């Protein structure tokens, strides 16, 4: 099992360690619900060093990126970030990712840990004809996410970067506790917050995490694990690769049309398939649901729509902040409207579910 | 935390014997492993259960797990309070967080369960793994 450079800090903080995508990471420290609520009300500190960092550098870096992603990276300016799909020829997901424009001809792409090797090979293969250097530098980088209403105050104590003017999906480069870092106003929780990328040895990385946890006490912020990360992202209806998006469901079916720019002026993988699908219309769509009956509909539980089996729950949990069972699933388009009902098999029982508006949780600005 | 005068199963259920009837719950160790319990699916009163049959489901935010019947018998009562207050399983696993009662077919089956001392050793074995 691989260890992040923050591993020592997790043990010091008595994190309950589990294997995740080949990494030893904490699923929780004080408790999933407690950590979830802390992020919604004060703050949470996450080690997300397992995420992959791939750099694109060169004269045709932008063209290469445009060729493989769904969104229009030409709209980026230095210091701006964009969410996008890394697409197959069929318009489905190889992965979802963030594109950071560092400067002209230099970009950072942040990908899921589970897909890093696959993504990197895919990127190399499909950008070979461009004048661009594609480098996987994931091993060098640690990443800490600080999320929640108190995140700005807490992170500000550690950096010379003025965080207040930093907009959502923007980043700045500067010192964080004597280390060069990229600090972006991004996250996977539905709260305000920051993601800090830096290169250091294990001692310095663990020290930063422990210092954040220590200083966080003042704001009632807590170290938080993978368990809370998953429930937080689901309340905010942020897709998880392998659950809600994958290489068999298209960008349009995933209800992520806003990251698809068909007319961005550059041909890209999946463009033809998606243009056709847009014209013909989709037949199924990812929707959010609540259980009407008691129980929890979890990932993989079978679904029945109008008496016929139709796939399975892609993500489902008991939402700790909303205090109700929620989930995501692909439904036939004619049964995907708000208020539509369907059945979920929960072991030997059947529970009624209803399509609801998403995101389930939206923070007050 | 563990309790005397109870019997324990390898699946971390505790059993309180009162004549031919038993009360079943999960141990403090088990509730801690599960994390925050948000829903308990209780068996129907009158249902016959064999030793080792899944009797109830406990849903925590993290996962779902079965509570197995530690002996063969018939469900005589369930803890209806858990319907509105599933968190009792976390807060008071040996008390208000009890799950169901059984009238036992063969009292001798109880001999196969562990006493406190054996269960403590069993827990130590798990911790050492």
Commentary on this structure:
The complex is a heterodimer of chains A (365) and B (129). By secondary structure, chain A is of the alpha+beta class. Chain A folds into three domains: 2-50 and 139-235, Probable tRNA modification gtpase trme, domain 1 (Gyrase A, domain 2, 2-Layer Sandwich), CATH 3.30.1360; 52-134, Aminomethyltransferase beta-barrel domains (Alpha-Beta Plaits, 2-Layer Sandwich); 283-365, Aminomethyltransferase beta-barrel domains (Elongation Factor Tu (Ef-tu), domain 3), CATH 2.40.30.110. Chain A has eight helices and 20 strands. A six-stranded mixed sheet of chain A has the order 11-12-13-10-4-14, with helices on both faces. By secondary structure, chain B is an alpha+beta fold. Chain B has a single domain (7-114), classed as OB fold (Dihydrolipoamide Acetyltransferase, E2P), CATH 2.40.50. Chain B has three helices and nine strands; from the N terminus they run βββαβββββαβα. Chain B has helices at 28-34, 88-91, 116-128, and strands at residues 7-8, 13-18, 21-26, 37-41, 48-49, 54-60, 64-68, 73-78, 100-104. In chain B, the strands form two sheets. Chain B has a six-stranded antiparallel sheet with strand order 1-2-3-9-8-5. A three-stranded antiparallel sheet of chain B has the order 4-6-7. In chain B, a hairpin with a 2-residue loop joins strand 2 and strand 3 (21-26). Chain B is globular and about 35 Å long. Chain B starts with 6 loop residues before the first strand and ends with a helix. Chains A and B meet through helix 2 of A and strand 4 and strand 6 of B.
């Amino acid at each position: 099992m691989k260890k992040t450079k923050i591993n020592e800090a997790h043990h010091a903080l008595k994190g309950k360690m589990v294997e995740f995508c080949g990494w030893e990471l904490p699923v929780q420290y004080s408790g999933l619900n407690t950590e979830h609520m802390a992020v919604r009300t004060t703050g949470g500190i996450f080690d997300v060093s397992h995420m992959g960092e791939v750099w694109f550098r060169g004269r045709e870096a932008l063209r290469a990126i445009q060729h493989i992603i769904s969104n229009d990276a030409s709209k980026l300016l230095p210091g701006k970030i964009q969410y996008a799909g890394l697409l197959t020829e069929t318009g489905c997901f190889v992965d979802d990712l963030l594109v950071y424009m560092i400067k002209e001809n230099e970009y950072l792409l942040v990908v899921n840990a589970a897909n890093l090797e696959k993504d990197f090979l895919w990127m190399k293969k499909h950008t070979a004809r461009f004048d661009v250097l594609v480098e996987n530098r994931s091993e060098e980088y640690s990443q800490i996410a600080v999320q929640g209403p108190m995140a700005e105050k807490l992170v500000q104590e550690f950096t010379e970067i003025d965080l207040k003017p930093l907009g959502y999906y923007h980043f700045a480069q500067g010192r964080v506790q004597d280390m060069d870092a990229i600090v972006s106003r991004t996250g996977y929780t539905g709260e305000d917050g920051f993601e800090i990328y830096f290169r250091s040895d294990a001692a310095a990385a663990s020290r930063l995490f422990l210092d954040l946890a220590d200083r966080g006490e003042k704001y009632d912020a807590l170290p938080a694990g993978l368990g809370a990360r998953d429930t937080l992202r689901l309340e905010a209806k942020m897709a998880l690769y392998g659950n809600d998006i994958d290489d068999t469901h298209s960008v349009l079916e995933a209800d992520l049309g806003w990251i698809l720019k068909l007319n961005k002026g550059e041909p890209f993988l999946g463009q033809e398939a998606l243009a056709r699908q847009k014209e013909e219309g989709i037949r199924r769509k990812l929707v959010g649901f609540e259980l009407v009956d008691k129980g929890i509909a979890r990932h993989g539980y079978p679904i029945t729509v109008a008496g016929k089996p139709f796939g399975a729950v892609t993500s489902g949990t008991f939402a700790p902040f909303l205090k109700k069972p929620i989930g995501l699933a692909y439904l036939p388009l004619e049964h995907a409207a708000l208020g539509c009902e369907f059945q979920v098999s929960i072991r030997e029982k059947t529970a009624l579910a209803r399509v609801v508006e998403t995101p389930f949780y939206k923070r007050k600005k | 935390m563990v309790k005397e005068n109870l019997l324990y199963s390898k699946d971390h259920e505790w059993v309180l014997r009162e004549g031919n009837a038993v009360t079943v719950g999960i141990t403090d160790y088990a509730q801690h492993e599960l994390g925050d319990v948000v829903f308990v699916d209780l068996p129907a009163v009158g249902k016959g259960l064999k030793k080792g049959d899944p009797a109830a489901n406990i849903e925590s935010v993290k996962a779902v797990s079965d509570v197995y019947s530690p002996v063969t018998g018939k469900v005589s009562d369930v803890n209806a309070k858990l319907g509105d207050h599933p968190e009792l399983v976390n807060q008071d696993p040996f008390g208000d967080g009890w799950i169901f009662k059984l009238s036992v077919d063969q009292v001798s089956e109880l001999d196969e369960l562990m006493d406190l001392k054996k269960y403590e050793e069993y827990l130590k074995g798990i911790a050492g793994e």
